[in-house]
Amino acid sequence: MTGLILKLGPHERVLINGAVIENGDRRSRFAVISPKANILRMRDAVHPDEANTPVRRVCYIAQLVLSGDAEADAARQQLLRGIEQLSQVFKDPDSRSQLSRATDAVLRDEHYQALRALRALLPREARLLAAARQ
What we know:
Layout: E1 4-8, E2 13-16, E3 19-22, E4 28-32, E5 39-41, H1 54-67, H2 72-87, H3 93-107, H4 111-119, H5 122-133
Antiparallel strand pairs: 1-4, 2-3, 2-5
């Protein structure tokens, strides 16, 4: 994750290599220059009870790697299988692009980037699920 810039609001929390860090009273910005650092914004975290849709479940697996609760090697197959399953539903060019980014990121062990690409699918998934309920 060389060159990742984190911008945090007041009292925002972030998980870095297993440690939860809380920002102070002011907005701040800092660069993460260590490669392979595991970083997760707490506001982006999926609670286990919220991992109840296909995209959220795949996001949750990536999140487990970032939080140190799952080994990258063990999660790789689950992530790639989940992304493949999502590609059967998300067929528009932009979604395909996000899924391709997520796949490439998983193969490079860049789980934050994979999570970021997958999270871009959440609004689309919500629209598809809402349309299916009608």
